[in-house]
Amino acid sequence: MESKNREWMQYKKNDPKYKTGVKQFIEFAFSQKNVQDVVPCPCVKCNNELRKNREEVELDLLKFGIVRSYTRWLRHGERTGSLTTHNDITPQSTQDPEFTSMFDMLHDAFKMPRQEDAVGEEDNVSGYEDPPESVDKFYKLMSDLELELYPGCKKFSKLSFLLKLFHIKCLGAISDKSLGMLLELFKEALPPGNTLPDSYYDAQKIIKNLSLESQKIDACPNNCMLFWKEYADAEECVKCNACRWKKREHTSIPPTSKSKPRKIPYKTMRYFPLIPRLQRIYMSSKTALNMRWHQDERVDDGVMRHPADSKAWKSFDERYPSFASESRNVRLGLASDGFSPFRNGHITHSTWPVVLIPYNLPPWLCMKQHSLMLSTLIPGPHGPKEMIDVYLQPLIEELKLLWEVGVETYDGSRKEKFKMFAAVLWTISDFPGYGDLSGWRTSGAVACPSCNSETCSYWLKNGGKHCYMGHRRFLPDDHAWRYDMSSFDEKIELRPAPVVLSGDEILNQLANVEEVTSTSFKSNTNKRKIKQLWRKKSIFFELPYWSSLLLRHNLDVMHIEKNVCENILGTLLNIEGKSKDNLNARLDLEEMNIRKSLHLKRCIDGTMKIPPAPYTLSSKQKKDFIKFLTSVKFPDGYASNISQNALLKKRKSRG
Description:
single chain; seven-stranded mixed beta sheet; 15 strands; Transposase-associated domain-containing protein; Transpos_assoc; Transposase_21
C-alpha cells in the first residue's frame, strides 16, 4: 500500500476512504516477513494489546475505528527510518494548545518520534533505532488522550481530565479516599456514555503508566541497617537484633486458617531512583535545552548569578576536565531537613526528605518546586540524626554508577543519544543537619567545622553552655578591632585565621573513624566523656570525587537569619525566655571579668540590680520600635510579613 498517506485514519468509520484505508492496512500488516496468522489489533478497543487474525482485525477496525494517533505502524513492521514524508499528519485535535502540550509530553516521556521529527531525518534517527519497550503503554495513553470525556465533549479528553484531577489532588493534599468519592460523584454527574473510571484504583492504573518507579525498602527500627541486597530476606537487624516486623497482638484470622497474616514492617523508607528521572529530563526537548544553559547561554562577567559562577564549580571543572567537557553532565545539590507531615502542630513527628537540585538549569528554574527531585523519604517519628547515611545508601550507589560508568541517555533537543554522568557538588542543611550529613560534632567545645581543632570556645558556668570566641582572627591583620580590648574579651587578638583543611587532611582525621553502615559501628552520641572531632565518617566519602571538592557542605541561611533575627528581637524587647541578656549572662561576665559596666549591682538589702545595657529600650521605645517594624513593606517574595512574627505579637500582648 502507499504507507506514506495516512489521512484516511482521521475520517469517520462510515467514510468510503476510511474503509479503503482499512483494506490497505490489512494488506500491509499481513504482508510483512515473520507474520503468521495474527497481528496486534490497532482498533480503539484493543489498542494493539490483543493479537487477532486477518478477519478479526478488519472487523474491529470497521466496527470500533482505528487509534488515530497510531500513525507510525511500528507494531506492524514499519521501519522508523522510512517515515520521511510530509503527508503524515497528527490528529486534528492537536490544534488545541492544551492537547498539543499533552501530545508532546507523551512523545517525550516514551521517546516516541513525532511526524516532524522524522521529516528529512533519514540520517539522524539514532534515538529511534528500536521501538521502546513501553510502546504498549504509549499507545494506550494516546488512545485515552483522544477519547472524549463524554460524547460531544471538546474541552477534556479522558486522560487530560484525569491528569488535571490528580494535579489538584497533589496541590490540595486530597486523600485517596476523597478522590475516589469525587470520581464517583463525577461519574454520576456526567452524561451517559462518559469514559471516566469507576474508582480511584482504576484511575490510578491509567496515571501510573506516566509515573516513574519508586522503591520501598524496610529499615531497622533503630536505624541500624536497610533490609536490602544480601539482607533483603533477613528477619532481624544484624547489628542490634531488633525484629523487622511489628508484633500482632490481635488478629481476626482464625488459628485453623491456612492463609498467613501479612507482616507489617516497623519502618519503610521510600526511594525514588535518580537515573530514570535524569533521563526523563533529557527526553523533553525543552528541558534538555535548558540543561545546557550553564555553558551555552550563561554570561561569565564575574557577577555571581548562578552556581556555575562560583569558585567551587570552577575548581571542579579544572580538576575533572573530561566531566566538564560535556555540558549535559549533571551537577546536583543535595538538601535535607526534617518536617512534620501532619497539619496538627501538637503531633511530634519528623519525616526527613532528601531532595536533589539540578544546577544545570538556569537560576530562574533550578530552584523552582517543579525542578526539585525527591530522592529519599526517611520515615519518622524521629529524625535519623547521624544514621542518615543508612538511608542514603541506594542514592550513593546510583551516584557512584553515574560517576564511574555513566548511563546512555536520549537528548530530545538534539535527537541523539549520549553518555550521561552526574556528580553531587555539595549539600545544603541547617547546622544540626550539617553534623548529620558531614559527621562533624556540631556541639561541645570544638563545634565549628571551619575552625576544626582550632575552635576557640569558653564554658559559661552560669549559662551552662559553650561560648565561641575568637571571631577577630578572621579580620585583616591591621584591623582596629583586633586591638580593641574593652569591646570584646579584654585581650588583643594577634592570632591568624584558622587554616581551612583540605579533603585529604580531613580524610587523615577520619582514618580511625567508622562509617555508620559498618557492622561494628556504635553511636557515641550520649557519651560526653569521649572527645572526638567526628561522630562518623560520612558516606559521601565513598564518592571518588568528594574529598577533592572545594565546598562540601553549605548552611541554609534561612535558619541562620531566622535564629539571629529572633535573638536580636528577643534581646531588644526583653522577651522572657528569648532574651540573651539575663541574670546568668551577667554572672558569666563577672566570671570572665569583662564588661564591668554590665556587672550586677549588689544593694544594701542583699538584692541585685541589673544595670541597663546600651541596647536596653524603654517601654515607649519598644512600642515605637514595634510600630516601625510592623509598618515596613517589602516587595513580593522578598520577605514574610514581619508583623506576624510571634515575638512581636508576644510583646504586643504584654504592652
